[in-house]
Amino acid sequence: MTRLNPKRYNHRVINLKKGDVCWVRALQYGNIIGCKSRPVVITGIASNGAVKCRKCTTNGDGLNRKEIIDTVIAGLYRRTFVTTEDMVVPINRISWIMGHLSKEDEDWVCA
């Protein structure tokens, strides 16, 4: 069995920039009680140790979601969509950086 070297692919969070795709722990979903871990795209830096980001999902249903064209560069392995609403997440919930969006994807996600 081939195993990936986590030191090579999973970059720890040191300094984040626009367009980074990160894994975030314990994000609340919907208006119900519960949370899950998921990838997000960083769209900016907020105050007090927090970042502005948009959720990634594999569910393409809904009017407020657009597809990421180049998922391999972004560190994603499935067809992925990004929501169009920004949210603020504390930086201590970010586990690692998975990749970075391509230039074409970054233009519309981080606009």
CATH architecture: Roll
Poorly predicted regions are 4-9
Number of strands: 8
Q: Please bin the fraction of helical residues.
A: under 10%
Characterize the structure shown.
With 111 residues, the protein is mainly beta. It has one domain: Roll (SH3 type barrels), CATH 2.30.30.110. 10% of the residues lie in helices and 42% in strands. It has two helices and eight strands, in the order αββββββββα. Strands 1, 2, 3, 4, 5, 6, 7 and 8 form an eight-stranded antiparallel sheet that branches. A hairpin with a 4-residue loop joins strand 3 and strand 4 (50-57). The longest helix is centred in the C-terminal third of the chain and has 7 residues, at 103-109. The termini are far apart.
Detail the topology: elements first, then pairings.
Blueprint: H1 6-9, E1 11-12, E2 20-28, E3 35-45, E4 50-57, E5 65-67, E6 81-83, E7 87-90, E8 94-100, H2 103-109
Antiparallel strand pairs: 1-8, 2-3, 2-8, 3-4, 4-6, 4-7, 5-6
Features:
111 residues, mainly beta, SH3 type barrels, eight-stranded antiparallel beta sheet, 2 helices, 8 strands, 10% helix, 42% strand
